[in-house]
Design brief:
Length: 673
């Protein structure tokens, strides 16, 4: 009996001690509550801290689930809740509320939200425990939010930035096109549906799906496809089908079509993979994004930022809307290029659909005026969603219009010879007036070369062969011997000075020009080949055009520019050529056209100077290889631009003079304007 009494007395004593323990102060409770708030621990806040009146007014889903959903939907983050500490010595009366100023800061998808409110704590007994509990209402989510109010988000799309040429001609702009559609009550013939499907490159089933939408009325226009404004041929075809019509609609336009196709690129619907990557930057599943060319490269500048607004719609039919946070719409940037769209169009058309590439630069500033890949695709066609049959047609085209040739590099052939000459003259190993005795169509230094011999196309060239004759007759043997004279080290160093082996400093990614696969020259035979643009040498077409700048600037090569707001005449390379040597090469390149084998460029209206080149690509054993033709040229009287042009497979078209004829058209058209 005594033992049992002792236990009872011990338990009673513990209860007494527990009752004597000091209760947490309202400030301590508030601090705990705010700690959970900052960690978004809403369940803990609801279950352990809210007072009885609040719980009766707001069920768990009104507090926990609603806040969790709002935080997710509104992308609320970086929540920072603080309170103003009470004055020193403040005493709390359990019979009265405890009020604290609470400061709330957060980031939302529409910008920052910040407010201050009084939070009240009441002393209550809950489940036989006495403590301070928080009195809560929805205004602690957003200050103006009351029971029954709705929170919604309003988004305003940004206008995509436009791409203009140097004269502010449109390259990629927000224009208009057409919705092709049908009026169901007038579109009843099966044959008409099949004809429309074939013209648009879509299935009959997809037309039926559009017509079968729940909102469709029999006498209402129903869009089934889109077409670019410049596709007049297709518009005429669909208009002739009974029950088919078209209506103007907002659309991205590429007015220069194929001429600027590879440069402009196009936009298209964002892919699921890209959306996952960019969702934090405001992209949604309905957005379009740059897919190729400048549309892709300039996506960040062109896309802009949607305007976002978080609104509270007050309860009641006529409830007003209050703005909680707002980020204004930022339209995309208008980007002005150095490109001359009309000159680009003229260059593209002059190439007559042949496979090749062209680039033109302003020799005084380095501005890129032309960057052509031929043939090309029409970006309007891709932007609208190209049909499988049409894509297959382009993919199987032997001229490969989907391949961007100005981004690639090619063996330059004899178009590199003025550069070889410049290196030799600057090294002091090539004296322009000194002639070499060259006999026969082939040559080798000695028997150590084995079967390798350098071949020249014009063995009839009269001896002695000086630099001028070597340029006019494009004499491979002359340049091979000059390269051997200057030596491997000097020649490689000279090519590196012209930018070989380094990244081209340009806004778009271009394949670098190379001396060889390893960047070095391993034998005398390779040295000879490289001197006239063969071997393993490759050049990018824009770089090739830039390499001719020192001949007009007395030794300076400028960084190639693409954007009008870039600083002009940024020196990329200098000291490449003396004024005297530059003048010698200018005279020689004019003679190439007047006296040599670029007679198609010997225009009566423009005094063109330049250098042709033919690069032989090795074919299978027993077969002749493909020949690519080059011509790099300028107007010798008014050198407003240097044009470098390459046409593939000219072996059956008279050699590189074929290319010179195309280039001459560009200069003549430019002069006539």
């Amino acid at each position: 009996m005594t033992k049992k009494l002792a236990i009872i007395l011990a338990l009673a004593f513990l209860v007494f001690l527990a009752g004597c323990q000091p209760k947490a102060s309202p400030e301590e409770r508030l601090k705990e509550y705010i700690g959970h708030w900052n960690k978004e621990e809403f369940s803990e806040m609801y279950s352990a801290y809210l007072n009885q009146g609040t719980k009766e007014a707001y069920a768990s889903e009104d507090f926990v689930e609603r806040q969790q959903k709002l935080y997710e939907d509104l992308k609320i983050e970086n929540v920072e809740v603080t309170y103003t500490e009470p004055g020193e010595g403040t005493e709390w009366d359990t019979e009265n509320p405890a009020d604290f100023p609470v400061q709330v800061k957060m980031e939302t998808m529409a910008g920052p939200v910040e407010f201050e409110k009084n939070m009240t704590l009441l002393f209550e007994t809950k489940e036989d425990k006495e403590n301070w509990f928080v009195e809560w209402d929805p205004s602690f989510i957003f200050e103006q939010l009351e029971t029954g109010d709705e929170v919604r988000v309003s988004a305003t799309d940004a206008e995509r930035g436009e791409i203009l040429d140097r004269n502010e001609q449109p390259i990629a702009v927000n224009g208009t096109g057409y919705d092709i559609g049908v009026v169901p009550e007038n579109f009843t013939e099966v044959s008409a549906k099949e004809e429309l499907a074939e013209i648009l490159g879509i299935s009959v089933a997809s037309i039926d799906e559009k017509i079968g939408q729940s909102w469709v009325q029999e006498n209402q226009f129903v869009p089934v496809s889109k077409v670019a404004k410049n596709d007049t041929e297709l518009l005429a075809k669909v208009e002739a089908i009974p029950g088919v019509a078209y209506q103007e609609t907002a659309m991205r336009e590429y007015p220069y079509g194929e001429a600027l196709g590879h440069l402009s690129g196009y936009i298209g619907p964002i892919s699921a993979e890209k959306l996952e990557e960019l969702k934090d930057q405001g992209y949604t599943s309905t957005d379009s994004i740059g897919r190729r060319g400048l549309e892709q490269a300039l996506e960040e500048r062109l896309h802009g930022a949607k305007g976002m607004e978080i609104l509270i719609k007050k309860q009641g039919d006529n409830g007003e809307e209050l703005t909680i946070a707002e980020t204004p719409t930022e339209n995309g940037e208008t980007v002005i290029l150095t490109i001359d769209a009309e000159l680009q169009k003229s260059t593209y058309e002059s190439m007559e659909g042949e496979a090749g590439t062209s680039a033109a630069v302003d020799p005084k500033t380095g501005e890129t005026l032309v960057l052509v890949s031929s043939p090309a695709y029409d970006p309007n066609e891709f932007m609208l969603g190209i049909s499988e049959s049409r894509f297959e047609e382009l993919s199987k085209d032997p001229l490969n219009p989907l391949f961007n040739r100005f981004g690639a590099a090619y063996a330059p052939g004899s178009s590199i010879k003025p550069v070889t000459a410049a290196i030799g003259m600057e090294a002091g190993t090539l004296e322009p007036a000194d002639g070499l005795q060259i006999d026969g169509a082939t040559w080798q230094k000695d028997g150590s070369w084995g079967d390798y011999r350098v071949t020249r196309l014009h063995p009839e060239a009269p001896n002695p062969i000086d630099l001028n004759k070597a340029l006019v007759y494009s004499d491979n043997i002359y340049f091979a011997r000059q390269a051997l004279e200057m030596g491997n080290k000097t020649f490689v160093s000279g090519l590196q000075n012209f930018g070989f082996g380094e990244e081209i400093p340009f806004a778009l990614e271009l394949q670098s020009s190379q001396i060889s696969n390893e960047g070095t020259i391993g034998s005398e035979g390779q040295l000879a080949d490289t001197s006239f643009g063969q071997g393993q040498m490759l050049t990018n077409i824009l770089h090739l055009a830039s390499m001719y700048e020192p001949f007009l600037t007395d030794g300076i090569m400028y960084k190639p520019l693409l954007f009008a707001d870039e600083e002009k005449s940024q020196i990329w390379k200098e000291g490449l050529l003396s004024a005297e040597n530059a003048e010698t090469l200018r005279a020689g390149m004019r003679n190439v056209v007047v006296d040599g084998y670029a007679q198609s460029a010997n225009s009566t209206s423009v005094k063109i100077a330049g250098k042709t080149g033919t690069a032989e690509l090795k074919g299978a054993i027993g077969e002749e290889g493909q020949e690519n033709g080059f011509f790099v040229a300028y107007d010798s009287e008014s050198p407003d631009f240097i044009l470098a042009m390459m046409i593939e497979s000219i072996e059956d078209n008279g050699g590189s003079d074929y290319v010179a004829g195309f280039a001459a058209k560009v200069f003549e058209e430019y002069k006539a304007e």
